Amino acid sequence: MRLTPMQVAFFKENGFLAVPDVVPAARVAAMRTRIEELCERWESEEARRLGVQQEAEAGAPIAERSSRTVRKLSFLARHELIFGEHARDPVLLDIVEDLIGSPLALYADEAFLKPPFHGSEKLPHQDNAYFGVQPDAALITCWTALDDATVENGCMHYLAGSHKLGVLDHEPIPGTPHRTPKGVDLGEAVAVPIQAGGVILHHALVLHFSPGNQTPNWRRAYTCHYVRSDAQDLGTRDPMAPPVLELRGRRAG
Q1: For the chain, where are the alpha helices, taking DSSP H only?
Q2: Are 125 and 172 in contact (CB under 8 A)?
């Protein structure tokens, strides 16, 4: 699958692009099943090596931690076969290459979970305010919906065109691992609901956020942050993070 010139132009203008029906249903189901297994064993060694994070660790008030209050898993592509296959999918890499070029590497990856009734909001932020890759346009996020993401269960929201503002100063939110810029006007934010199997690509500097989930349904997503591996500066790496994973060299011509 290659993007059309209109899709590429939309991304460049707005900083995000939704593409439906990219990931096969069988793979979506397999990733969802594996996440369910890891959540059930959230205190196990296999979950700990994936940096399992509970809602309580992100500042959300919950009465008791359980398999239904897990909010994040990391490094899945390095440890879990189905997620590694997804990160290397030539269809995804073609789409990413159309937007940022090549050579390509996997910079980081996470499963972001919004459990039923417990899923907390993610405040507005820019990904590269955390990662620090230079140039900013060398980093892109590919967000894959594993459940139907709706306005009610916390789909992604974007401030169209905000990637043109440069890196904004982000302040830490006490009691959480989050940071957010001050004085952001969310009045023009665009909700981007998408069905399971669809992907959203977004620029490293576009402001985005997601509301909490107050529905009885999960809102799970698997996110791959791809980088041009010839970027001038690959940022300040988390000492716990595995090395950048090379995926695709330059294409001839």
Answers
A1: 5-14, 25-40, 45-48, 76-79, 81-87, 90-100, 127-131
A2: no
Dist CA 131 CA 161 (whole Å):
20
CA distance 45 to 60: 24
Whole-number Å distance between alpha carbons of 144 and 28? 9
Helix 5-14 × helix 90-100 angle, to 10°: 60
Give how many domains the chain has, as a whole number: 1
Structural domain that includes position 83: 5-242
Q: Which residues have C-beta within 8 Å of that of residue 153, sequence separation ≥ 6?
A: 114, 119, 147, 213, 214, 215, 217, 218, 219
The answer to whether residue 253 sits within a structural domain is no
Q: What is the CATH number of the domain that holds 70?
A: 2.60.120.620
User: What are 23's two structure tokens?
Assistant: 């990931």
Express each pLDDT in 46-57 by its tens digit: 999 999 988 876
Q: Distance (Å, rounded) from C-alpha 196 to C-alpha 97?
A: 23
Question: How do residues 15-36 score in pLDDT, each as one tens digit?
Answer: 999 999 999 999 999 999 999 9
Q: Are 106 and 226 in contact (CB under 8 A)?
A: yes
